[in-house]
Structures are given as structure tokens and as C-alpha cells.
Amino acid sequence: xxxxxxxxxxxxxxxxxxxxLRDSVTGKVVAKTSSxxxxxxxxxxxxxxxxxxxxxxxxxxxxxxxxxxLAGYLMERKEDLYELSYSTGATRSDSWIDIEGGFMTLFAxxxxxxxxxxxxxxxxxxxxxxxxxxGTFMGQHIALPLQGAAIHINAYNFPVxxxxxxxxxxxxxxxxxxxxxASDGSxxxxxxxxxxxxxxxxxxxxxxxxxxxxGDLLDHVTCQDVISFTGSASTARMLRSKPNIIENSTRFxxxxxxLNGCVLGMDAxxxxxxxxxxxxxxxSEISVKAGQKCTAIRRAMVPxxxxxxxxxxxxxxxAKIDIGNxxxxxxxxxxxxxxxxxxxxxxxxxxxxxxxxxxxxxxxRFADSGGAYLEPIVMCCDNPLEKTDVHSVEAFGPVSTLMxxxxxxxxxxxxxxxxxxxxxxxxxxxxxxxxxxVMGASAFHGRMLxxxxxxAGESTGHGSPLPNLVHGGPGRAGGxxxxxxxxxxMHYMQRTAIQGSPAVIANITGxxxxxxxxxxxxxxxxxxxYKDLKIGDQLQTKSRKVTLNDIELFANSTGDTFxxxxxxxxxxxxxxxxxxxxxxxxxxxxxxxLFVSPDPGPVLxxxxxxxxxxxxxxxxGDEIKVALTVRRKKRRTEDYGEVGWDVExxxxxxxxxxxxxxxxxxxxxxxx
Length: 672
Known about the structure:
Helices cover 32% and strands 23% of the residues. It is of the alpha/beta class. It has three domains: 5-123 and 145-257, Aldehyde Dehydrogenase, Chain A, domain 1 (3-Layer(aba) Sandwich), CATH 3.40.605; 266-465, Aldehyde Dehydrogenase, Chain A, domain 2, CATH 3.40.309.10; 518-667, Hotdog Thioesterase (Thiol Ester Dehydrase, Chain A, Roll), CATH 3.10.129. The strands form six sheets. Strands 15-16-17-14-13-18-19 form a seven-stranded mixed sheet, with helices on both faces. Strands 21, 22, 23, 24, 25, 26 and 27 form a seven-stranded mixed sheet that branches. The longest helix is centred in the N-terminal third of the chain and has 25 residues, at 92-116.
């Protein structure tokens, strides 16, 4: 199979310099790849001028719906990818993480964008800042997509998920992607990108693919481009030190392999659920994907008195794992990505085992098998605080090291000696111990999992990055945050502070703010379908007088007889009130009564209330009225959308008594 590159809207094979890609199980050549002859500068220009321009025609929700459709399209064709994945040495369950896990990441990113981002093309970042006394000059932070390309340089261990975890956030942001997979397993990425292109869902230029060397690609990046890299720390240092990247301050996001740690709590003695979970997690992390996971547990900290029991229990569990051809029905652990990778793991294992004896496993067991197999290897480190290699050398395969500790401070120190990791976990039922570990070690980790008997049934485990949580970490882990919902999207956007009048800011953001212009509507807004509601449409209600009788009736019916509502002398003694005050929730109820349109119509439901603030007390004899304004809109399904209404309650002096945002679901059509 001759792999092709997808450049400037065309599939192109390299002219020469082909590299053979071999089956990890049989050693046979399964594909050839080359990128020689590609015009990398032209690819970047195409991404910026064609892909970026096309993507920015759409809003965040438009792109989110495209991403959802693409995930569904790929899911329907997953079996073709599963068959190819066997050649990478992965079992069916290993491939599920990569293939369906990648597609589910797209679904998740799409959902986060539709829930948390506006139905437009300007992301409002944070609250409005009032910069003048009368409110005519204000500031607002916004974010817009960078006008460059997202260059994604991925690792070999997850050919599908590794590409999609980065592609999803960049696509939502509105930035076109150039995918560069590692050569090993790139036939899987190429097949997936072919599906993406064939779907016809993506705008032209949204994605390109390089199967082979990146040539001089990085010599042409600008301040508008983003490089996101997954791989070794040495390669990351080499790439980010390129003069063009430094000169242009090109964004460089690195997710590097790290020496992730796992701590068994001092309370988690053999026989406790937490001890069993700890053993299960380590066995899983060094056998799934043959231990080739950036989140795999490389250093496991065990209380000194539990070390012998941990070695025995872990050895028994690992001995039950059937290692062999990933196509086998009983196989639970397949091969490494290739013989070259196996040789690299053995080299690193030689360094580590020189000072940390192997207590579980035999590195020579599969030496003559012809495949890239290696059984799980576990070492034991004495005096880990005094050792260096175990905290700096990673064997990227089914390899881990147990190390003893004496107290909480020592466990924290061992976690910190990893120099920054993607993830750490602690298995304990002692709330004080787990809090101390998190407080002491979280600065060195992008994610921390606390595992115990309460969460075990639903926990996704130590090594499962989730698209709605940060995936990345400080220090040796690269310092990046590849995912994390909108956090991941923001890597591809520029945050800018805009200043001006409320009208100017509302016009740019597409969200009404107090002080901006409004339009008085003749037709009640609750009688208008979603598309007919315009930002700034406003209904002003009649007024209603508040009496002591109203206050007492509300108190008696609700049971809220707080003294400020019922006792005049006590209320006057309160520095906030002049006399008995109306209940805040009475005002909300009356406000609804003033602005509601009771007959059936396009408004389907009241679904929430945000940012409620009571400002001016309302007393006996005061009159309240309401201004109901369309603040923002979001599509939710094909049938209805969410409308956020600004509700402002004022008194007869036009003082603001309360303000909040009301959320309603409004139909796209009015059956009534």
C-alpha cells in the first residue's frame, strides 16, 4: 500500500525516498510512505487563504454540528480502521481506545462547544468591565480564531485518537489543520483522513495530511500558526528551538512522554479495596497498548511495609495476561509498534535495571518470536530518593518500577522528582492523606486521579484522558494543555480586549449588554419563534404596587418569615433596610407575572436563571416594572434554541431593584 499525502485539496504520493512500514506482528511490509516533492510553503498558504477563510464563514455552533456529523460518519466506518489497526500490534480493545475513543472525543468537543460557546463567531471571555462612572465606556475580552494553520505533529501510539484530540479543538476554533502522523501506523491515519475528506462534511481546506517528513514546513510558520506536538522531549526541544519559531513567537504546544506516578495510600493495606484497585491499575497501564501510553504508570509508590505484598499481587495479576497475536480471541496484550520500538524499550530497560532489579517478568521471553513482543516488566527501586535514572529515563513500553516510601512527605517528594507529569494517581480511603498528596503534588501534574471504593465502579482510571478535562502537564510533560473543553479551543484563538460604548461592544459580540440600544417590540416576544427574535428586542411591562398584605401573604404561603419581611423594628435595625422589605423571590414571581404571555406559543420551557442580583430594596407602596430584553441566543437541536433574556426589575424611581438572566427554550416553528 503506497500512502498518499493530502495537500492543497489533492491526494499526492511522494516522488521518491519511500520508507517501509512493517507489521508489528509478522514483520512484513504493509505500506510505504514518503512526502518528498510536496510544497510545504504552499500547503501553509492554502491552509491560511482557503481553509481558514472557509472555516471563518461559519460560527462556533455551525462548526460544532459539522464535527458531530463527521464523528457519526467515521463511526459508521470504524471496522475498516479496526482491521488496519491489528498491524500496529494493538488488540481490539487497544484499538477501541484509539479509534472509537477518537470519534467520541469529536462528539464530546462538539457538545462542549454547543453548550459553552456562543452561536456566532465571537467568543466572549469573562465578564464585562465597567471603565467609567456612568457606564458609557466599557471593556470586554473577546477571542477570535487565529488566521493561520494548526500543525499537528503526532506520536505513533494513537494514530487516530492522537490526531482527532487536536483536530477537534482547532476545528471548533475555526483554524485549518495539517496532520502529520508518526510514520509507524500512519497507514491508519491516512485511511481516517480519506474518510474525513470523502464525507464532504468539512469545508475545503479544513484538513491536510503529510505522511512522511515535514521538510521545511516549520521554516514558513508565522505568528498566526500553532504547532502542537506529541512525542519525546528531545524532539520537542529541537523543533521549538527553530529560529523561525522563536522569531515569530509561534505558539508551540508540547505534550511529551512523562514519568507518571501512582501512590498507594498508607491506609491501603493488602485486602482493602484501594490496594486491589492500585494493583489492577498498574497491571492495566503496562499491558494496555503494550504500555505505549503517554499516561502509563512508570513509577508506583508503595508504603515500605506493603512492598512484598504488592510485588506478589502484581505478579499474580500480570501472569494471567495472554500475550500474542492481537487478532487472537483470548489475547489481552499485543505487540509493540515495531522492532525498532522494542529495541529502544530494551535499551532503556537496561539502564533502569542496572540499579533497580527486575522482580516481575522476563525481557528475553519473546526474543525469538519474530514479532515486537515484550512481556510486562516490573522493577523494584530501593532508596528511590537517592536514585536519578528511575526519575529521568522512560522505557516507553510495558515497564514500571515500584518504589517504597515511609511517610506522606516522602511520597510527595517522589512524585515531584518526576519533574512534571501528565497525570498522577493516589489510591487511598484516607481523606487527609489524599488531600495532602494533591496539595503537595498538583503543581507537578496536569491531572490527578483519586481512586477509592466509592468511585471505582464508574472511574475511567489513571490513564484515560478525557476531552472535557485538561490533557497535558508541566515540566518534563511539555507544559501544554491539549484538551480541556474550551481551554483546548483557546490555544487556536487570540484573546483581545475591546473598549468602547455598550452599543459598540454589543454590536461586536452579538450579545446585548445594559446600556446598549434596544428595540421596543409590538408583538410580545414570547409569541415569536426563535429566528424572529433579534438581539436587543425589548418588552417593557406595566407596573405593579407592592403592599404589606402582599408581603405577608407571600411569607405565609412560602414559610419564609425572615424578620426583615415581618418585623418593622428589626428591619430598621438592619443596616441594609429602612423598613419591612419585600421578598426577593416575591419580586421574581411578580416579574414573571408581568412579562409572561400565558397562551401556548413558541416558548417551550423556562430552563434556568443566571446571575441573580438584588440591588435596591422594595418596600410597602413601591411600584415595580420589568424590562425584558433578548440578550443572546443558542441553537440547541434541529427544533428549538435557547434564548437568554435580560430581566431588569426597577421601581417607580427607575432604580434597579434586581437583575438576572432568564433562560427559555424557544421553538423554530409555532404550531399554534
